[in-house]
Structures are given as C-alpha cells and as structure tokens.
Fold:
Amino acid sequence: MHDVTAPTAGDLLVILRHSPHGSSWLREGLDAALVGAAFGQRVHLLFMGEGVTALVEGQQAGALGQKGTAPTLEMLEMYDIETLWVEAQALARFGLSPADLMLDPVPLSADALARAVATHPLVLTF
Amino acid sequence: MRYGILLLGAPYSDQASHSALRFARALLARGHRLEAVFFYHDGVYNAARLAAPPQDEPHLVDGWATLHAEHGVALQVCIAAALRRGLLDEREAARHGKAGHSVEAPFELTGVGQLIDLGQRCDRLVTFGP
Structure:
C-alpha cells in the first residue's frame, strides 16, 4: 500500500485540471510532462478536479477527429513517468473509485496534495 | 531574482496576458531579471504580428517586443502549439507552403524543452492563465 501521507519528491510536478476532449489543456499539459521526462527530469503527474476524468477506463478518441489522450497516458511508463496522483476529493465528487481508473493512480488527500506541491521545485499547472 | 513567465492565455480574451505584461514590467522596475516569457497553449496568440487592437487599448504584441528591446527578455513561442493555431514565422510558412507569415522577431518559435530549461534556470517561474 502506498503511503499517501508522504508523497515522493520529484523535479517537476505537472498538474492537470481539465477533462479530455473539450479543450486542448490536457493534451498540451501531457506534452509538457513528456518533454520534461525526455529532458531527464523526474516528472510526477497530479490529476485534479475535472482532470481526474482523463483516467477513466475505456476512452476513445471521440467524434471530433481529435487524437484523444488515452494513448498518450499509456505511453507515460515508457517515459519513466510512473508516479500518478489523483485528488481524492475530486474522485468522490465525480462518483469515481480508483478501480474505475487506468494506470493505478494513488489518491491524495487535500493535506497530502499540498505537500506534494511543496516538495517539487518546479510546478506547471494546466 | 531571476524570473521566467509562462503565459497560457490568449491576448484580449483573458486577463492573463495583461497581468503577465504588467507583472513583467513591475519586476524589472524593482531590479529583478526576467530571463524569458514562454508562450504556450492559447498564449501563443500573443506573438501574432498582425494584431491590430484599437488605439485606445494596450498593444500587447508591441508591449512584449518592447520588453525584449529594452531588457533583452527572450520571447519564446511553443512551435507545436503555434503551428496548429496558424502562427508561423517565415521559415515555417515556406516549409508549409503558406503565402504569408504571422510571427516575426523578436518572437522565436521553439520547443517545450525551452520551458523546462527556463524552469530550471530561474529562481521563480510564474504562470499566467485563464
């Protein structure tokens, strides 16, 4: 079991606050995370608010001709981005449980979330 | 201190660009250094050289260019975010067979790697977004 009270420190924390499909926020945020990892940074991802819906299983590209973000999320491990956090309060708000999500993210309480932000020298919020 | 700015908001649509420009001027006035402004997401529209706002409104594109001319602030635009939004410099316009270009110096098209580098080099990277 992960210890949610002591988030691991990293070099770069990317916070994703937007759902997929409705805007390019999620895609462009993920791009920044991938580039950070390619530059040798230890990158951690935090899905907050609507951003938690990005991890819901079984997503397709949708009808708008966009690429979708699920394939990008599946590539994270190849970039050594293995620490994925989700805001526990947001999961509850959307009626989701960790079992509904891909990639086995770790839920963080509000306190743990604040500590996660504090332990990263660089935080990018999308 | 050494600062960097990440700007994610489109000019005139959101407060973000106005606030970022005023913040940039304020920190330079206090003797801090501003290494670069990185334009990403809809922030790339700040680099549109054809922007023609009414004369009684702040001219954001000129405002950024002035920061570069007077303080050497680099104006870095994410190339991937810019190209899909129709923002191309002369070289990219030629490469994609477009009749005109919409980005010019002192704005430079560059990769997100420059944003990561900026975050590492600066004491503070401050994000402005809608």
Notes: The radius of gyration of chain B is 14 Å. Chain B touches chain A at residues 6, 8, 40-41, 80-81, 111-113, 115-117, 119-120, 125, 127, 129 (CB under 8 Å).
